[in-house]
Design goal:
Blueprint (H helix, E strand, L loop, with lengths): L1 E17 L5 E21 L4 E4 L11 H9 L9 E7 L10 H16 L6 H8 L6 H6 L3 E4 L4 E4 L6 E6 L6 H6 L12 H7 L6 H7 L1 H10 L6 E2 L6 E5 L2 H8 L7 E8 L3 H12 L3
Parallel strand pairs: 3-4
Antiparallel strand pairs: 1-2, 2-4, 2-5, 2-10, 5-6, 7-9, 7-10, 8-9
């Protein structure tokens, strides 16, 4: 099986409080984009999980793809089969676009079929939240208004514009941002109707700019071309366009030191589109 593993954008991110366990309560709008990694899954008779290629400075046991597979092992019906997973990486790490969480969710969805676990999407999402707060939205596969730590999802239908996504040459520390005493933690909660009509802001933006000069430089550059937003805790920034041509025109002028992509918003995860085709093809 071969599946795309898409990125997501936080169209806004409000921090509404902090729980006693240290996790933050938030509200956000998740939307998928058609920029994807690709995962290849091959069953074998070795009854183990292997991941390739190795990622520098990331032990296999810490890889979310490996963790997702091991999490699903107790549920597999094909108990004698292991799996070899090959990851073609395109999504930048540390960009706030959910690449690791997406890879984990794609692994859960794929192995649920290949190992005949027969778990519901809701059960897979419950398992996935152990790996990261963003995993459930990738498992469920729809654009969503999210609350809690990001796991309470309400399905929404959003416009599907084109986005110019820019990754400055830096890695933002999520831990640093969420533990900073100056992080806004009391943004008033909003209703879903407000979120869909008026949108919101990203409470992490000012701190990310403060600690990461590269992000601040890119933000100020992009500000000349529209309403710049930060996704997650960064480092990726994005602009919204009505058509691909306008987005490409701006991308063509971006300094070479930054990575940039023009991509399209999606209301259904590309993973689910391809997985459903695979299921239909392999019925019976």
């Amino acid at each position: 099986m071969q599946l795309p593993s898409p990125a997501k954008l936080n169209l806004f991110l409000h921090i509404t409080g902090q729980r006693q366990d240290g996790y933050h309560e938030l509200q956000t709008l998740f939307q998928f984009i058609d920029l994807c990694d690709t995962l290849h899954f091959s069953l074998n008779e070795e009854s183990d999980v292997t991941i390739s290629p190795e990622i520098k400075d990331l032990p296999t046991q810490e890889n979310l793809v490996y963790k997702a597979a091991k999490l699903l092992e107790p549920f597999r019906k094909k108990t004698t089969y292991g799996v070899a997973i090959r990851l073609e990486k395109q999504l930048p790490m540390g960009g706030g676009i959910g690449g690791g969480s997406s890879n984990a969710a794609t692994t859960l969805l794929a192995l649920n079929q290949l190992w005949q676990c027969q778990l519901s999407l809701e059960k897979l999402a419950q398992l996935g939240v152990q790996l990261g707060a963003d995993v459930p939205v990738f498992v469920m596969g729809f654009s969503a208004f999210a609350e809690g730590v990001g796991e309470r999802l309400q399905k929404v239908t959003l416009p599907t514009p084109y986005f110019l996504l820019v990754k400055p040459n830096c890695h933002v520390s999520t831990c640093q941002i969420f533990t900073d005493k100056d992080l806004t933690r009391d943004t008033p909660p909003i209703r879903i109707s407000h979120a869909l009509k008026l949108g919101g802001h990203n409470d992490c933006l000012n701190l990310v700019r403060k600690y990461n000069p590269e992000v601040n430089e890119a933000y100020l550059w992009l500000k000349n071309h529209g309403d710049v937003k930060l996704t997650g805790t960064g480092a990726c920034l994005f602009l919204t366009f009505n058509n691909a041509h306008d987005a490409e025109q701006v991308r063509a002028t971006i300094p070479e030191k930054w990575q940039a992509w023009v991509c399209r918003g999606c209301n259904v995860s590309p993973t689910h589109d391809v997985l459903n085709q695979w299921i239909e093809k392999n019925k019976g």
